[in-house]
User: What shape does this take?
Amino acid sequence: MSAIRQLAPGIHWWTCPHPEYRTKSEEVVSYALVAGPVHAAGETYTPVKALALVDPLLPAEEDARRAPLLAALDDLVGAVRRLEIMVTIPYHTRSAEELFERYWGAVATRLWGNPAVAGRFAWDTPLTEIPRDKTGTAVPIADGLAEAFAIGNPRRLETPLFFPAHKALAFGDAVVGMPDASLRVWDQADGTLSWYRHRFLPTLEPLAALEVESVLVTHGPPVARGGRRALRAALDAPPVRAYW
Assistant: This one.
């Protein structure tokens, strides 16, 4: 199996052991989205516009998968004019800073996230803060490569990201993939069903109206096709307390 797999045209993904919980039993997912033309063999080479890494996580130093994964990422980054590293939720800062340090000297690089992401940095790495408007309002970031959405009432630290050119919607923790390949909303707040229905679910409804083909979740399997339908089913179903 290659270090990075293709989920859909321009969307790549890989898995690594969860760095904090169930480290021997759960693999979490990271994504790389290529923005620009894909060239066939023999065509004139032109660098693609940009690469977005979403919640990137590297294997541990002693993991045999680390070197092949870094080599694959080096190839992707080497083909672009700029790199946008995006963190959907502060808990997922993970390897984002390490990858920023690896690539910023070779290609124009920005690291995006909630202001709380900076609190997880080991170095004085610059953070481009994701602006957050009222829930349901799209805020373009990375020169239009993605649109950020605020969710929650009160507002959560998580920022789902929609990539219009890929018709892909990325979640940090709010939506997870289930063993049967469906999607569900992950209830981590231990709130009442009334709170979920009237305070949280309405803030996710605008996302279900987007033209989504792929749903990129970090916990559980992603959805490659039919994402809008799968997300609608998740919002119509009860939330889950566990996804494994």
